[in-house]
Structures are given as structure tokens and as C-alpha cells.
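User: Here's a structure from my thesis project, written as C-alpha cells. My advisor, Dr. K., wants to see whether a designed sequence matches the one we expressed. Can you design one independently, without my sequence as a hint?
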């Protein structure tokens, strides 16, 4: 089995690359999706967030008000407080899923998509380790795939994702651009990530060009997975 960490900054297109790899046979675990499930009412992560940040982050229907939680985390500089609750549980859930995959498919390519793969200071919640490794990701992955794009492209994609087919006002566009800037500032620059990565996938062109790059990458990952048994 090959454990692949797939990362990239906000709006880089890492989710698109992840889906392309899944189409070619990889098992794709999306950290955001797993975290979202763990943040549902009744889950331990949900309870911890509500206790830590207060009832103001709970919507009228009892779910977490993700917009308000994001505002507190990014605008008030409390991202790490949120990460300390969510990341360990998410990583532990990933490990459990990967262990199940390993039983059925020992030559699998398992891709974990995570925006903060390098940035997180946390490992599994149940590791029991007294001393956290300096870089927890080093013990979790056999190789790292980094998706990169220009800052302008990242911000444009973030705005497109937030607005969809609507035509936002100039004020709303400026607000979203500022929000993208704040989030990007919380993330490690691509130049630093490239030094830590095994494969770098540039995503400033067309989807067809991105497909070609993934076509080149996939056989390399498959070969590595077969030779890790």
C-alpha cells in the first residue's frame, strides 16, 4: 500500500487532482469531508467545538454555523484553537479507514487530500505519544503530491466557488478576495511546500493539461504501491 498526501493552498485545485486520481483507481480520503462528518451534532468533535467557542457557533437547527465558526477562526486569529479540536480526530479517523482498506487491498494507492497537511501540529488523538514528532506528516505518508497555482488563480477560484453562477456586487467581490487573502496568509507558501514534496503538479492551465499531468503521475504511484508490499 502507498500512503499519499495530497495538498495545495486554497484554490490550487487539489480536490480536482484528487478526483482525477480516484478515477484512475486511487482510494481518496478528503480531510474536509471527514471533518465535516465529525462536526455533526452528537459527535465528540461537535461537542468540543460548542464548549470551546460557545453557543454562538450553533445554528438554529442545531448544526454548527460554519460561516460564523470560520469568521471566528480566521478573522479573530483562532484557527489553531479550532485545529487542535478537529485535526487529531480527523487524522485518527483517516488512520482507521486506511487500516480497513489495507486488509482488502494491500497494493492500494490511498490518497489523503488535506489543505493543511504540512501546517498541522497535530497527530492522532489516540497516539498516546509523549513527544509529538516535529513533522507529524512524515510518519503518515510515503510521498507527498503538491498542487500549485498562482495567487491570482487561487483567489479567482475561491471567489468562483463562493459565488457560483451569481453576479456578486463589487463590494462582495472585494470581501471575498480579502477573505481569500486572509486564508492564504494562514497557509505555508508554495515555495516552502515544494521543498518538502515529492511531486509538484502545476495547475495554471486547462483541465486537459491537468489530466495529462495526472496521467503521468498515476503509473508512478501505482508502481510504488505494488513495491511496498
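Assistant: Designed independently from the structure alone:
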Amino acid at each position: 500500500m502507498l500512503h499519499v498526501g495530497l495538498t495545495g493552498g486554497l484554490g490550487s485545485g487539489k480536490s480536482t487532482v484528487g478526483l482525477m486520481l480516484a478515477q484512475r483507481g486511487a482510494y481518496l480520503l478528503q480531510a474536509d469531508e471527514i471533518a465535516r462528518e465529525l462536526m455533526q451534532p452528537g459527535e465528540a468533535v461537535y461537542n468540543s467545538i460548542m464548549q470551546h467557542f460557545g453557543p454562538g457557533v450553533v445554528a438554529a437547527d442545531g448544526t454548527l454555523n460554519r460561516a460564523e465558526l470560520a469568521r471566528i477562526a480566521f478573522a479573530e486569529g483562532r484557527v489553531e484553537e479550532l485545529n487542535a479540536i478537529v485535526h487529531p480526530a480527523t487524522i485518527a479517523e483517516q488512520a482507521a479507514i486506511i487500516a480497513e482498506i489495507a486488509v482488502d487491498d494491500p497494493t492500494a494507492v490511498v490518497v489523503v487530500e488535506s489543505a493543511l497537511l504540512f501546517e498541522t501540529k497535530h497527530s492522532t488523538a489516540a497516539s498516546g505519544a509523549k513527544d509529538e514528532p516535529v513533522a507529524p506528516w512524515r510518519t503518515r505518508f510515503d510521498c507527498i503530491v503538491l498542487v500549485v497555482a498562482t495567487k491570482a488563480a487561487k483567489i479567482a477560484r475561491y471567489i468562483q466557488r463562493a459565488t457560483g453562477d451569481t453576479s456578486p456586487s463589487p463590494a462582495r467581490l472585494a470581501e471575498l478576495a480579502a477573505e481569500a487573502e486572509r486564508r492564504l496568509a494562514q497557509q505555508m507558501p508554495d515555495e516552502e511546500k515544494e521543498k518538502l514534496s515529492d511531486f509538484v503538479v502545476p495547475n495554471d492551465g486547462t483541465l486537459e493539461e491537468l489530466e495529462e499531468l495526472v496521467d503521468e503521475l498515476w503509473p508512478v504511484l501505482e508502481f510504488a504501491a505494488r513495491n511496498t508490499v
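When you compare it with your expressed construct, this may help: The mean pLDDT is 90.
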